[in-house]
Every structure is written in C-alpha cells, then in structure tokens.
Design a protein that fits this description.
By secondary structure, the chain is an alpha+beta fold. It contains 5 helices and 9 strands, in the order H-E-E-E-H-H-E-E-E-E-E-E-H-H. The termini are far apart.
C-alpha cells in the first residue's frame, strides 16, 4: 500500500503540470491558449519558422499579420467559415468567423493564444459566443450542436499545422 501511495505522489505532478496542446470549447468558452514544446529550438528559429508558416498558410499574409515583435510574438487576424447554425429543417450553414491569434515564443516552446472570436449573423454580434449558443443552465442550444466542435477543430488544426511545419522544417536538411 505504501508503494502505491508513493508511486501516486511521485507521478501526480506529471499529470497536474502537463500542458495541453489542444483547445477545448465549453459553456465558458474556448480555452485561452495552448503551449507546445519543441525541444532545442531558439526563440529566433521559432519566430522565423512561424512567420514562414503564416506566409505559406494564408493567401494574403501581408493582410493578416497585425503585428510582429521580432523573436517574441506574431499576431494574426483571419477569417474562416466555421460557425455552424442549423435551421428548423435540419440544414445548416457555416458563417465566417473573424479571429485573432497571437503566437509567442520562448526557447523550446511556443504559446498559441486565441485573443478574439466574433461572428456577425443577421445583425447579431456573436463576440461572446458562449452566451449566444448555450442556455443559462449550460445546455447547448440545438441550432448550434456542432459549433463548439467546429471551433475546437479549427484552432486545433491550425495549431497542428504550425507544429508540423516547425518540426518538418527543423529536420529538413537539404
């Protein structure tokens, strides 16, 4: 019994302090940021590779890059259709979401942070998305049944794309 307790106490910090690399969306909203560790890459390299990723990912990168602080952070504002609303017939339409992300760098890791999300649909501003798609009791309104997952997926795929780009270009040696 002492061995089990000791094992539990020694491994608990690993689980408590591990950082999640995936966004989640709940009735309280989207998790604010994720931290991704990529060993032995300097801030300068992370910054440079992320800037190149933005240039290759976005059609007009000069229009989406809001700010850069060399070797520290990059802020990007983009638009994509991932806010899904169903109608009474079960059909849906995806509406454009304007989002701002900030990617900050420290040696061996980057922080991918969602600063803002907003949707304008039928003159309703969805800048506070959770208050619009969840009932007061925390239950998701049926018109938005896929919306939280679509939001999570969009930012998780964006983050996975960035991480894959950094790793691929770190190992590329030609």
């Amino acid at each position: 019994m002492k061995a089990i307790t000791l094992f539990f106490l020694m491994t608990l910090p690993i689980f408590v302090f591990s950082q999640n690399e995936n966004f989640t969306f709940t009735k309280d909203g989207l998790s604010e940021y994720v931290v991704v560790e990529i060993d032995s890459i300097s801030e300068k390299e992370l910054y440079s590779k992320t800037l190149n990723w933005v240039k290759e990912t976005y059609i007009k990168p000069e229009q989406v890059i809001d700010a850069t602080i060399e070797n520290e952070s990059i802020r990007v504002t983009g638009k994509s259709n991932f806010f899904r609303i169903y109608n009474a017939f079960g059909d849906f339409k995806d509406y454009p979401v304007k989002y701002t992300i900030k990617i900050s760098f420290k040696k061996g890791k980057y922080k991918f942070e969602v600063l803002s999300l907003s949707v304008e649909h039928d003159s309703v501003n969805y800048s506070d998305i959770p208050s619009k798609i969840y009932k007061k009791n925390g239950e998701l309104l049926k018109w938005y049944k896929d919306t939280p997952l679509k939001i999570e997926d969009f930012f998780n795929q964006l983050n996975t794309s960035l991480k894959g780009y950094i790793i691929k270009n770190e190992k590329s040696d030609w």
